[in-house]
Design a protein that fits this description.
By secondary structure, this protein is an alpha+beta fold. The protein has three domains: 2-156, 2-Layer Sandwich (Beta-Lactamase), CATH 3.30.450; 206-308, Helix Hairpins, CATH 1.10.287.130; 312-470, Histidine kinase-like ATPase, C-terminal domain (Heat Shock Protein 90), CATH 3.30.565. The protein contains eleven helices and twelve strands. The strands form three sheets. It has a five-stranded antiparallel sheet with strand order 2-1-5-4-3, sandwiched between helices. Strands 7-9-10-12-11 form a five-stranded mixed sheet, covered by helices on one side. A hairpin with a 5-residue loop joins strand 11 (453-457) and strand 12. Helix 1 runs antiparallel to helix 2 (54-71), helix 8 crosses helix 10 and helix 10 runs antiparallel to helix 11 (438-448). The chain is globular and about 85 Å long.
């Protein structure tokens, strides 16, 4: 038994070391990936600062300071000449990096055009560090500058060292308790563990349908159930990932193919110079559509990641709807639409994020204007729940808002999917109707507020989108 315990303790020590190394490497890689994503976002903003209004430039500076504070990192945005556009909280050179190192990285990046990711190991002169250098480019893929993010690894080192201490303590206690039972339990544990190892190998190869028998209600049985649940969840995530990649690829491939065809026709002379104006206009339209798509994807990603804090204020939703209609007055008049406004007799005060709810209203009104026939009717209504009955009874303190039209309506089989990403009732996705992301963003914004949206529609009878907000 003493030999068994000695072997067990040795094995546990080796396991602890392997887990320590694994946790350390995983956390370091995760940290590097997070910094890379932030640098890519900053590079995108830097590439747009000359093409868009001053708001984008101000957002770039704010984003630089936010990243610097969040990651305790030195952040620097340079152009190819070394001119600084924005810096982190230090407002100068990056701590831990010399000017010579910055110039070396900048020269290498200009030469290759590829991102640089460096993990500097700890040495006598200091702790380990992460350095990410991402190029920002023009639309023609010309490198215009670089985004530097440099940060120490001390923060995550402290976290995984604490994990190691707790893990080691737990392993020692487990070894002491398991010593008396190890000989009896070995036979019953070996077989299911072996099956789990085989199933794990299958999952590592991408075979997410791997399952193991769930026998008994002991720890091994619960572990088997958890393992199978994990395999199922991984399968669902993989399916979602493939669907998302497929959808994005489809959305980008169509306009890119169209643009390539028009531009190639202009270059090889198939399209005469005197006939090029309308084709250039179509290329510009496709460029704008791709820009809207990318912007919507970034917005949806930020909302789903929970990085969009709500700034709740008290405001009158009726006034917000009126302002939204005024902004879209020109489009409404161009389609000769009648607008029927049915506001509650009392002001409808709500507690919500005004900017996000304005985005919800804009998306819904924009959809209605797009799909209703010229000369149709657009109806907007608000009501306190005290005046609105539902199958669940009356709800106090809730305001209901509806945006309706008398357009062609939505087929019943399509309605469960209209709030999914990239889902459009019109399957001709290159028709210019939209990106298929507006309703997905709308639902996620409302769910952040603790509410939801539903649709009531029938073919030929129009559509109504109805949502609620907390009353003020």
């Amino acid at each position: 038994m003493a030999l068994v315990m000695a072997v067990l303790m040795l094995a546990l020590g080796l396991l602890a070391m392997m887990m320590y190394v694994s946790i350390r490497d995983d956390k370091a890689e995760a940290r590097l990936n997070e910094i890379t994503i932030q640098a890519q976002e900053l590079a995108y903003l830097a590439s747009q600062r000359r093409l868009i209004d001053r708001t984008m430039e101000e957002y770039l500076y704010q984003k630089v300071h936010d990243v610097s504070a969040e990651f305790s990192a030195g952040v620097l945005v340079l152009d190819v000449t070394g001119m600084r556009y924005a810096a982190g909280l230090t407002d100068g050179l990056i701590p831990g990096m010399t000017l010579e190192e910055i110039n070396q990285y900048l020269s290498a990046l200009i030469e290759t055009g590829e991102a640089i990711r460096v993990r500097t190991p700890a040495g006598r002169l200091g702790a380990a560090a992460f350095t990410v250098v991402i190029p920002w480019k023009t639309a023609s893929d010309r490198v215009m500058g670089a985004v530097f993010i440099h940060t120490s690894a001390q923060v995550i080192q402290a976290s995984y060292r604490d994990v190691l201490a707790r893990m080691t303590l737990a392993l020692v206690l487990a070894a002491a308790l398991a010593g008396g039972l190890i000989m009896l339990a070995t036979r019953g544990i070996t077989m299911p563990v072996s099956r789990m190892a085989q199933a794990a190998e299958r999952i590592a190869r991408g075979e997410f349908d791997a399952n193991i028998p769930e026998r008994g209600c002991d720890e091994i049985g619960r572990l088997a159930a958890s393992f199978n649940a994990m395999a199922k969840e991984l399968s669902n995530l993989e399916e979602m990932r493939r669907a998302f990649v497929s959808d994005v690829s489809h959305e980008l491939r169509s306009p890119l193919t169209s643009m390539q065809g028009f531009l190639q026709g202009m270059l090889d002379g198939t399209i005469p110079e005197e006939d090029r104006a309308p084709y250039i206009g179509r290329v510009l339209d496709e460029t704008r559509r791709m820009n809207r798509l990318v912007t919507s994807l970034l917005e949806l990603s930020r909302i789903e990641s929970g990085k969009v804090p709500l700034e709740l204020t008290r405001f009158n939703i009726n006034e917000m709807i009126s302002k939204a209609l005024i902004r879209m007055e020109e489009r409404i008049e161009s389609r000769k639409l009648d607008v029927d406004v049915r506001f509650d007799q009392e002001p409808c005060w709500v507690n919500a994020d005004a900017e996000r709810i304005d985005q919800v209203l804009t998306n819904l009104i924009d959809n209605a204007v797009k799909y209703v026939q010229p000369g149709g009717t657009l109806t907007l209504a608000t009501a306190h729940c005290a005046d609105t009955a539902s199958s669940k009874g009356r709800q106090e303190g809730v305001v209901t808002v509806s945006v309706s039209d008398n357009g062609p309506g939505i087929p019943r089989e399509e309605q469960p999917y209209i709030f999914d990403r990239f889902h459009t009732v019109d399957k001709a996705r290159t028709s210019g109707k939209g990106t298929g992301l507006g309703l997905a963003i709308t639902r996620r914004i409302l769910r952040l507020h603790g509410h939801d949206i539903r649709v009531e529609s029938a073919p030929g009878e129009g559509s109504s989108f109805i949502f609620t907000l907390t009353g003020g």
